[in-house]
Amino acid sequence: MVNFAIFSNKGSTLLSHIKIVLVETTHPGNIGAVARAMKNMKINNLWLVAPKSFPSAEATARASGADDVLAAATVCESLQEAVADCQLVVGASARSRAISWPEITPRACAEKVVINKPEQSVAIVFGRENSGLKNHELDLCHFLLRIPCNTEYSSLNIAAAVQVVCYELFVATGLQQTTLRVGDKGESPLATVAEMESFYTHLYEALADIGFMHPDKSKSIMRRLRRIYNRIQLDTKELDILRGILRMSQDNQKSK
Question: Are 169 and 110 in contact (CB under 8 A)?
């Protein structure tokens, strides 16, 4: 067994008890793509069972910044060695088997290993690109993980399969609930009812000034306009912009 870690991983995460295990991966680019998928979801414990080529410049290129996950990857000769210290082993496979294994979905797997049994050491095992896991390898697994997808085309690239599973694990931690600020979102408070009522009065006056309002239809038009703006929930800055447009429209109308 060879560990490529070059630093101490003291900053363990909520998902540090989960190993992603790849068995006899043929294409090193897929290893890099898996590392990238893992890092996206805050998972960094990668194990490689007898990869055809690793370390590899192609793996590093496909990792696209997840070099630390590759550097910390553990390479071993057998699946038995990779899962020896694990209490729960889940094998991912798209193929049906003559002998049935207890099956689990990615979401149910995430609930089991993150929410219900967070203290367990877990391995989630992915097989070869062309043939998946062999039956004797599944014998080491407690569950068979199946990713629901198009029944007429159920073949997933290994990195895509890892991404789906890691996403469900990440969601189960609740880490994704952190609100991200985009641009100036949240800087201006939402407009109050009083401010909106003043705006609607102003809007009615401006529409009347340009001859848009008709006495027999003004109530229904204003009601529909209210629905539009109420759905949007304007903030005070947006309201100021709209009222500025209305004032300019009225000024232009008066100057004619």
Answer: yes
